[in-house]
From TrEMBL:
Taxon lineage: Bacteria, Pseudomonadati, Planctomycetota, Planctomycetia, Pirellulales
Top-level taxonomic group: Bacteria
InterPro entries associated with the record: BRCT_dom_sf, DNA-bd_dom_put_sf, MerR-type_HTH_dom, TPR-like_helical_dom_sf, TPR_2, TPR_rpt
SUPFAM superfamilies according to UniProt: Putative DNA-binding domain, TPR-like
TPR repeats: 275-308, 343-376
The protein's name: HTH merR-type domain-containing protein
């Protein structure tokens, strides 16, 4: 009987089984996983006792069996084949949420990546917009990036730290893709390195150019443009909204924020109302210190796209920063109402409520931060706020 259960369960059959969760889950809250288990005709168990058939270990908690409350009797039951110990990843596979052998990793929002890498959110969004990092999933208008894209973003951040501008990085990666048409994402598909101000392909023991030549002097910008047929988007006066967008991005990269703002206003004039452009303009206005204008543009973006969660959350942040705390709470609650799984909004709402002296209300949002992403850059702060006696 025990052997039959073990064999059937290798295929992920949870029907009729009693399942307990121990440790911290990385992918879902307990409520969410219990719902998924019930849909699979399994019975979630709040207790780890002799009645359970499967014990799932959360990937954020690697404590020993004893520390998890798994008794010697339960370990004996597992040894006899009457109980199954599985990882969180295996559970997701059995529930059909991920493909077999696909690893489950944390997902990062643009704000989390920004904090993790020490680069601005505008740069993260630019990388996303240009296809340099690709979200594993997108909830409404909010992208989430998995560990592979985090690794790519780390490469890009290292290139920035080495002195390469965002524009130069994109031009050189574009040149690689131009000369190797099957390569759309060089950082993912190839072994590359930065030498000085250049991105080079690593081949064997040598470094070669995209076209197969040995080391080429990319430092001569004119030669680089001629050889790789790179068109400078700012060489002609923009005529379309998209060209004005590109010009705005170039000015933004050079920290010429007022010029970038002017270009985006031109883009909106030509292209008409756009939630995305209004959002980008709001971000630029905020960075340039035009807070009232930023608030106005965030409102515009939300009116055009009520599901734009990041616009709602950023509106709340600007309102909080300018001392409009009650209004900030309202904006952040609206963001959470659109998507309750937005860790960033819970974090900023918790901080704002704390600042208002409403610690009891803030507690649930600090807890939600830890539930949604126990590895986020804000996890330590959330834990400290929930456990002030340990300070």
């Amino acid at each position: 009987m025990a052997t039959d259960w073990a064999n059937r369960n290798e295929a992920g059959d949870l029907s009729g089984k009693r399942v307990a969760i121990v440790g911290k889950l990385a992918g879902m809250t307990r409520r969410e996983v219990f719902t998924a288990l019930r849909k699979a005709d399994a019975t979630p168990s709040e207790k780890v006792d002799q009645r359970v058939d499967v014990i799932v270990f959360g990937e954020n908690d690697l404590s020993s069996l004893g520390d998890q409350g798994v008794t010697v009797e339960l370990q004996d039951k597992a040894a006899a084949g009457d109980l199954k110990f599985i990882s969180e990843t295996t559970l997701w596979q059995w529930l059909g949420l991920i493909e077999p052998h696909q690893k489950l990793h944390r997902l990062y929002t643009p704000a989390m990546l920004s904090d993790l890498l020490g680069v601005s959110k505008s740069i993260i969004r630019r990388w996303h917009r240009r296809g340099l990092i690709v979200p594993a999933r997108q909830v409404r208008s909010l992208p989430y990036f998995d560990y592979r894209e985090v690794a790519t973003a780390k490469q890009l951040a290292a290139m920035l730290a080495s002195g390469l501008s965002p524009d130069r990085i994109e031009r050189q990666l574009s040149a690689i893709s131009e000369y190797l048409p099957d390569v759309q994402r060089p950082l993912v598909q190839l072994s590359v390195m930065v030498e000085g101000r250049d991105i080079l392909l690593r081949q064997g023991e040598g470094l070669v150019e995209p076209g197969g030549q040995m080391r080429f002097d990319f430092d001569r910008d004119d030669d680089f443009s001629d050889v790789f047929n790179i068109v400078d988007p700012g060489s002609d006066e923009p005529e379309t909204a998209e060209q004005w967008d590109t010009r705005a991005a170039d000015y933004e990269d050079d920290e010429q924020l007022e010029e970038a703002i002017r270009c985006l206003r031109s883009s909106l004039t030509i292209g008409g109302a756009s939630a995305e452009r209004s959002f980008r303009l709001a971000e630029l206005l905020y960075r340039a210190g035009h807070f009232d204008g930023a608030v106005e543009r965030y409102h515009t973006a939300i009116e055009l796209d009520p599901d734009m969660i990041e616009a709602r959350a950023n509106l709340g942040c600007v309102l909080a920063e300018t001392g409009q705390l009650v209004e900030a709470v309202s904006a952040l609650r609206d963001a959470i109402e659109v998507y309750d799984g937005y860790c960033d909004a819970h974090y900023h709402l918790a901080r704002t409520l704390d600042e208002l002296g409403r610690q009891r209300e803030a507690t649930s949002h600090w807890q939600k931060c830890l539930e949604l992403n126990p590895d986020s850059p804000w996890a330590d702060e959330a834990y400290a706020r929930l456990n002030p006696e340990e300070d």
